[in-house]
Amino acid sequence: MVELHRDSLTLCLCVCVCVCVPVSVCTPPSRDSCWHSAVALEQSIEFIRDTLVSNEEEESLSLGKCLGEDGIEMTPVRGKKPIVGLIGPGSSSVAIQVQNLLQLFNIPQIAYSATSMDLSDKSLYKYFMRVVPSDAQQARAMVDIVKRYNWSYVSAIHTEGKPSP
Hints:
single chain, alpha/beta, Rossmann fold, four-stranded mixed sheet, two-stranded antiparallel ribbon
């Protein structure tokens, strides 16, 4: 997933598992978690948790001062940056679970390969967007091609198992 912050050039482009750093410094992920719901949800929770500012931090920031452990006033630290949006995860089933969490915090989600028609229901998934057409739209396009070229015979090929890298 990608974590986007307002007023910042900091992006996380390291598939679900990363520490936010400038894009030029982003290192490859140690594991691909965008296809596993438990890991994707854990990462989403961490993204959200890391952006929350405690009431105590917020109060000291609004007063423009910070107190060190010894009670001496220090220069205020800029508050944590809210997530503007999240890109990912890969599958529809995981995207649905992540969206159910993100919408509690009004965080938009952009999926790059989730095609389930369920995700098109804006009353359920109002902060969800995708960059690929839904399964129904893809099927409609295939039918339109068959009709356009007046084909009388079409074959479908299907394989089982994981795709090879």
